[in-house]
Amino acid sequence: MIEQFAAFLTAIIVKLGYLGIVIMLAIESTFIPLPSELVVIPAGYLASKGQMNVYLIIICGAIGSMLGAYLNYWIADKYGREFLHKHAKYFLTSQSKLEKLEAFFKRHAAFNTFFGRLIIGVRHYISFPAGLAKMDLKKFFFFTGLGSALWVSILTAIGYVIGKNIALAEAYLTEITVYLILGILCIAAIYFAIVYRMYLKEVLHKIHHHVRTKILKKGPEPGKPL
To answer: What are the backbone angles phi and psi of residue 93, rounded to the nearest 5°?
Structure first.
């Protein structure tokens, strides 16, 4: 079953070649739901058969991902802020909250851009807040490229291992699928936990600063230090 499905997908990749990887990964990195797994894993499979080069797959995948990510960045930079501020109420938020979220992303842009590329469902849209926050383009391309290259490397490795061990992959398909899903969920959980911790730390810092400012304005109580 795996061999037949892999043969179908690899036939498409063979026809399209490296340019096809660039184009499809560019599409995948926009808001169009084209899973990169369906493109890169078959390419890794072909690499295991000597029909493609692992390094070129990773390079082409990273380039395609950066092109698609930049399209999202450009759309958000040019039109996103005006659109969100105009229709904030439809997103159950306000302009002030959007500005706070934008400022928060900007302070942690590198972290969010890099790790966001490794999370399914987030990787397609992480470039939008980067564009809204007007993240420095050099940093944007660097961390997008780094995260994309790592993600493509993981998928290529999976395809390569499957190609070298078809019978084993067929026998342990369920276990492999479960471990992959658990791995993805763990990465997502760690990412959101870190983001929440950073956000909570900033909120607590602001509360502490606000309270201290009020005390300084009122002056300390007699006999009590600040």
So the answer is: -145, -170
